[in-house]
Amino acid sequence: MKKLVLTGAAGRLGSYLREPLSRMSDELVSSDIAEDLGQLYPGERYQKADIAQYDQMFDLLDGADVVVHFGALVDEVPFEEMLGPNFLGAYNVWEAAYQRGLKRVVYASSIHAVGMYLRSDFIGTDAPHRPDTFYGLAKCFAEDLGRMYWEKRQLEAVCLRILSCARVTNTRALGTWLSYDDLIQLVTRAVDTPTTGFSIVYGVSNNDRAPVDNSKASFLGYRPKDNAEQFAERILKQAQPADIKGLSDTRHGGPFAAVDLGESCMIQMNIVDDKKEN
Amino acid sequence: MKKLVLTGAAGRLGSYLREPLSRMSDELVSSDIAEDLGQLYPGERYQKADIAQYDQMFDLLDGADVVVHFGALVDEVPFEEMLGPNFLGAYNVWEAAYQRGLKRVVYASSIHAVGMYLRSDFIGTDAPHRPDTFYGLAKCFAEDLGRMYWEKRQLEAVCLRILSCARVTNTRALGTWLSYDDLIQLVTRAVDTPTTGFSIVYGVSNNDRAPVDNSKASFLGYRPKDNAEQFAERILKQAQPADIKGLSDTRHGGPFAAVDLGESCMIQMNIVDDKKEN
Amino acid sequence: MKKLVLTGAAGRLGSYLREPLSRMSDELVSSDIAEDLGQLYPGERYQKADIAQYDQMFDLLDGADVVVHFGALVDEVPFEEMLGPNFLGAYNVWEAAYQRGLKRVVYASSIHAVGMYLRSDFIGTDAPHRPDTFYGLAKCFAEDLGRMYWEKRQLEAVCLRILSCARVTNTRALGTWLSYDDLIQLVTRAVDTPTTGFSIVYGVSNNDRAPVDNSKASFLGYRPKDNAEQFAERILKQAQPADIKGLSDTRHGGPFAAVDLGESCMIQMNIVDDKKEN
Amino acid sequence: MKKLVLTGAAGRLGSYLREPLSRMSDELVSSDIAEDLGQLYPGERYQKADIAQYDQMFDLLDGADVVVHFGALVDEVPFEEMLGPNFLGAYNVWEAAYQRGLKRVVYASSIHAVGMYLRSDFIGTDAPHRPDTFYGLAKCFAEDLGRMYWEKRQLEAVCLRILSCARVTNTRALGTWLSYDDLIQLVTRAVDTPTTGFSIVYGVSNNDRAPVDNSKASFLGYRPKDNAEQFAERILKQAQPADIKGLSDTRHGGPFAAVDLGESCMIQMNIVDDKKEN
Amino acid sequence: MKKLVLTGAAGRLGSYLREPLSRMSDELVSSDIAEDLGQLYPGERYQKADIAQYDQMFDLLDGADVVVHFGALVDEVPFEEMLGPNFLGAYNVWEAAYQRGLKRVVYASSIHAVGMYLRSDFIGTDAPHRPDTFYGLAKCFAEDLGRMYWEKRQLEAVCLRILSCARVTNTRALGTWLSYDDLIQLVTRAVDTPTTGFSIVYGVSNNDRAPVDNSKASFLGYRPKDNAEQFAERILKQAQPADIKGLSDTRHGGPFAAVDLGESCMIQMNIVDDKKEN
Amino acid sequence: MKKLVLTGAAGRLGSYLREPLSRMSDELVSSDIAEDLGQLYPGERYQKADIAQYDQMFDLLDGADVVVHFGALVDEVPFEEMLGPNFLGAYNVWEAAYQRGLKRVVYASSIHAVGMYLRSDFIGTDAPHRPDTFYGLAKCFAEDLGRMYWEKRQLEAVCLRILSCARVTNTRALGTWLSYDDLIQLVTRAVDTPTTGFSIVYGVSNNDRAPVDNSKASFLGYRPKDNAEQFAERILKQAQPADIKGLSDTRHGGPFAAVDLGESCMIQMNIVDDKKEN
Fold it and tell me: Which SUPFAM superfamilies does the UniProt record give (chains A, B, C, D, E, F) (predicted)?
């Protein structure tokens, strides 16, 4: 592969992907709205660009083979704020990718596209959308857009529905945890699988309590290695009693399923940068 | 019912709905971006409003029980043009309906939300989205939004996936035709059914060749009466040879499934106002 | 057919079945816990018997070909009261039928065996049980028992899951109504179909708004003729606003889905003998 | 349509198709192994040909648009006898149709391709094969071949799984009857539908007791008009007691499901030419 | 957890659960109809009680959080004998649990609730009931009851459909074995998972030949460790020829599927206490 | 087991099976059309026989318990050439096995029976046939025949749908590889499982990228050990760019899905004898 592009490279997840992606290609162009990323990896170049601006995406993707699109607002916010980065951002990336002749978009989708399903529904990758927030609705939009660009324009896409890629701090995460190593494997497979068409795969580790079904994406070869059960004893001991009928404790989306539309949820999720902790 | 609101009242389909809706409620407020509608029906009032403007929707829905949302661009256009009326328009109507305390949104969705399925797939109302155009993608967006407003905010919605509500002029329409009388029954049921939650129903007449499955929406009681088979002999005799592998002749979306994204399709569809013809 | 037996012959539904069943067989033995039924039909004989007493069932079924088992408490009551007539009664009828060598049991089951499903779920006859009351739980018990007697002992059974066989007095009944004529057709088919194995079929008329799916029972040839839509305009006009999230207005079981376990529900249902009214 | 070809034109079903097919095309070439057909219809020509001989099929299909392939042995016989007309015959017709550039094969398949399913299974057109005889196995072979010629070579096919196109003389036929008028409608739709790809449809009338599910073939517009229930009272009165566990009375294939492989079944089926009787 | 209650504590399986359950809670109350259990574990208390007596269950569950209900007759017996311990016992436990405000019932269900399915059907936890005995019918009753108490009264339940928790002595057990360690894990997960709603999970080890599908219960995190394949060579060598059409060798229920209703099956199953043997 | 018969013993796969099969039975009769096999294993005997000749199969199977039928042409060839060995050969083996009273046929079927499915369809063992070649069509024929012999004549069968049992030389094989050790386990389970009825199982190793679903065959206990991911880095590095819309790169059948019917495909597949290489 000659050229890979990564959006959202300054974000928490993006920062873990820069090094492995730089090794998969002759050139990695990392991009974000930050001024710079500090130290770069061999073969990596930084290009500041705003995903909400089509022209900047069109420039960014020049000559690329695959774009790994992780740039987005990563919390629930009012629809008007979500519109630019998460809705238009997705359109801009796919349209520019098509105009530039890329082969594939690898997209950071989310469990929140289907977050209103009961956690005891072992949902597969073909369950109809049931978003839990505007954040999730933007993921639905991008997935539907991606499928259409594949069916109408032969631009491949792999949508990674990430569950919880963060330190395990609550009982829900015993099922939803995606370790950073497994994230890297997931993105690697999404890039290196020879043909993918339009595919959806859940981003979750090999947790005993993993609540979703990746079997339809089996051909991608994503086989996670980590297991949150190592944290179970500690987490269960500290856990508050569950609200057995509450949305937060019974739906795949967790706190996002319970939050009011447009209100921030991340503080509640207790997501921290834990590169050195887990 | 005290107050109904109809958007898109000046449009082709909206114009057929004004009279029956005016009889279902104490007051019908018809709305569009036109200056006026000419002669009004008893109980009908006209209020000019742009669906792409949230404030105007918020004003329009004051005191309403149900909004019948038919306002939209009804052809394929570039994404940037679609964004205001079809994407933001849907958000504005649902958000205003929620803020104003309405009970339900009745929405003119479309077969183009699932237009890339093979015509020989007898798709039901729970088939995952496969849009064929930006036009269809906007319908996917609105349906997902509507489901979320129901699940998070208890605002009901009935999405009418209309197939072809127009004069029967080609072989595809032998299956996809929705007569105006059946359209009226469909909207009537969507309004008068006591509880609907979030529901999807295909808008198609009782055609011998109807290619979609409404059984999951059976409780709504939509039972169409008309049948396009009355036109079959004439239409089949005039028909050009089909392209048996082409998208237009094999997918539910018809010409929309074959058109380039962003390019107009309606001329090709030969849709005309045929109030007096069929 | 030489001998048919009907239990619950003095009940509201049973009383409608006596005449047609008497014409389908050389001898009809009608049974109940009443002292007598008054005037009998040609070929009909009355035998008082308590379904909760095995010996009386064993006597009753002597020489019979088929038993039509409609005897039961038909309201929600505490479990201890339900036990005798509805649980033991079912066991007694099936066990006696087996010991007496009958060919088939035709059983008055109920929608309340699956009453907790959403009304907008178009449930089929193979949906797993979700009872809404002890009344419904007894129907689940009898259906499972009946399937076992078929699979282990080659005693056929047809379970008629009746929805609402009563005057149409509320919006739910626009979907759930079973007319008396259609009840008779239903029982007739359950008796005259040459082989049935173990089968379940919903007892509902050909209502526009019928919310259940009988397609798997198609071979039985039950094709109802009546349609509650004739009452729709009147009923909808009088209807109270629905509780769009309440169990009573959103589940198949209606008021049974909302009632406390063990508390009477029939008064609320407003079921009356309406032989001459509808 | 310029030229249609009918094989098996001298057979019982073929003889009913000659007249309507002759009216659908400029030229109908009827074919069989008989010396002649007697009186021909306007536009009809007879060409003697053996389906088991590829060269004769290649000659026959010269210039044709569609072939309606009804030629076959229509009883259970040993495999060696079935091989020529029913296996090789199907291959010869499809291969010649491809080599001659035809658009479509309309094929007389049979319920016996799936005859081992329980009659109470409401099987659809996508149920995996479960043949009941070598006769049924040949139908499975031809259907799989036809699907492959569509997927590899863009030759369309419609497989008509006929249930019982004959006089109603037994209880099974109350469900399985296909009237001659409905047969003609079925073949007409299979010929005139503009695009069919590879499709399967059950050939059965609109019987109350029809035991199979044609919904997936809905787009073909086959809507039968006749109903065997008109014969029910007479047939049920004369019927012998069913064998409730026997293959013949419980499987879709009826007597074919019970017969020893390779042994004739037609006499048992009591199939007669009843052009003037039903 | 403050207080756990175990019924059937003197039984074969119950005796394995006392120690691990005593470590999961401040207090374990073990109960049975035996006079005493001998030596108790730290934190364990014994309370004699008869599950067939509601008052005794009501006393027993005072102050408990969760009841692990393993008390039952564990063989096929006539219905009248099964009624008290297995049917009324289940009702008594659930009703008392509800009246006492418990959070959850963990219930020893059984494969015999679905024992009539073909062993080659890889049945999931949502397969409709097909009991093979009165023993299995009682499990069906309790599962349906448990679902209802969840849906109507918010009392959670986890039903453990145990296959064969006993020494591996026959070829069926190569698939159905549940080791004692895996039983303990299974019960532990059923108790410690924060929210379960109403759930069903098969109790079977990680056998190569395991014939059932637990994927829908994935969120519970039950991941068995043992594998009966270690016994395969020895068992297969000693095995009698199978009866390839017999119920015992082809159905999930094994000998229970073949036994006459009401007749003991356990001797035939060769179930022994094997604490020290496997 | 007293006597096993292996057809195709001189073939590439057959040659790997001789030694393990010889150890599973008192006598192994290996058969092929070669003159001899060279050195035989203890308990092995060679009998030259042509599968296309019924009499030779009838002789061969005298006194056998199970036949492992691997004899066939293993490339795409014109239908006329396929007919004898692959179609008639299958019939001859099953018919002779029935006439000789064998218990079971173990059959080398192939992914090419369903080779036209999209590789991203995680097809199970109950997916309807979609053959990609005459070679695959013969597998469909044999599977349907085998199911019929089970349902009509109680002759068991296990059909092994082998994906790619050969050296891993291309990206497709990263998903489709079946190692020789896993082949042996697969055949062993197919022979030693006590009852199988008619079963289908995919022959594929435990590859990360395995694209098919064996869960329905779980009871057979086939649990492969090898994983082609060991070859992934090397293979992916050397790979040519994929044709993302081409049949060869997107369908389960690989090159067979793209080849013209009747044209050889094996050279393209680069299948070599690699006993000592992988």
Answer: NAD(P)-binding Rossmann-fold domains
| C-alpha distance from residue C23 to each of C27, C70, C187, C192 (Å) | 9, 18, 13, 12
Continuous segment of H or E residues that includes residue F256 = helix F255-258
- pLDDT score of D1: 86
Residue-averaged pLDDT of chain E: 95
Residue D266: the pLDDT is 77
Give chain B's domains with CATH numbers.
Answer: 3-269 (3.40.50.720)
Q: How far apart are CA D131 and CA F102, in angstroms?
A: 21
pLDDT band, residue C269 (cuts 50/70/90): low
The rounded distance, in Å, linking the Cα atoms of D44 and D27 is 6
Residue among E111, E112, E137, E16 nearest E68 (CA): E16
Q: In this structure, what are the phi and psi dihedrals at residue F67, rounded to the nearest 5 degrees?
A: -115, 130
Put simply, the answer to whether A229 touches E221 (Cβ < 8 Å) is yes
A 10 A CB-CB count for D258 gives: 18
The pTM score is 0.96
Identify residue E3 by its one-letter amino acid code: K
Residues of chain B under the 50 pLDDT cut:
275-278
Say which amino acid occupies C11: G
Burial category of A165 from C-beta neighbours within 10 Å (exposed 0-12, middle 13-18, buried 19 and up): buried
- Chain C partners of B152 at a C-beta cutoff of 8 Å? none
Mutate to test the interface with D, among F80, F144, F145, F216 (most CBs of D within 10 A): F144
The crossing angle, in degrees rounded to 10, of helices D134-153 and D89-99 is: 20
**More confident site: A247 or F1:** A247
CA distance E43 to E49: 19
Residue E203 and residue A156: Cα distance in Å, rounded? Answer: 42
Residue found under tokens 């495909």: F265
> Does A265 have pLDDT greater than 70?
yes
The secondary structure element, H or E, covering residue E154 is none
Spatial contact of E212 and E113, defined as CB atoms under 8 Å apart: no
Instruction: Tell me how close the Cα of F147 comes to any Cα of chain D, in angstroms.
Output: 7
Report yes or no: F22 and F68 within 8 Å, Cβ to Cβ: no
From the list E229, C9, B115, the residue with the least C-alpha distance to A152 is B115
Judge: E209–F193 Cβ closer than 8 Å, yes or no.
Answer: yes
Contact predicate A32/A71, CB 8 Å? yes
For residue A152, give the chain F residue with the closest CA.
F245
Based on the residue annotation, tell me whether C41 is a catalytic residue of this protein. Answer: no
- Rounded-to-integer distance, Cα A222 and Cα A203, Å: 9
Virtual torsion, Cα D222, D227, D228, D229, nearest 10 deg: 140
Q: Which of A16, A46, A107, A135 is catalytic?
A: A135
Max Cα separation, chain C? 54
- Take residue C38 and report the two structure tokens written for it: 């008054």
Q: Tell me, what amino acid is at D167?
A: R
Q: Could you identify the residue written with the tokens 């209650």? A: E5
Q: Are strands B156-162 and B104-110 parallel, antiparallel or unpaired?
A: parallel
Q: What percent of chain D has pLDDT over 70?
A: 96
Contact F108, F69 (CB under 8 A): yes
Average the pLDDT over D11-27 and give the result: 97
Using a CB-CB cut-off of 8 Å, the residues of chain B touching C174 are 221
Total beta-carbon pairs less than 8 A apart between chain C and chain E: 71
The residues, ordered by sequence, that sit 6+ positions from B170 with a Cβ below 8 Å of its Cβ are B235, B239, B270
Nearest to C144 among E95, E137, E147 (CB): E137
Assigned token pair, F80: 């006329």
Cα–Cα distance list, D69 to A32, A199, C148, D90 (Å)? 64, 41, 46, 8
pLDDT above 90 coverage of chain E, percent? 94
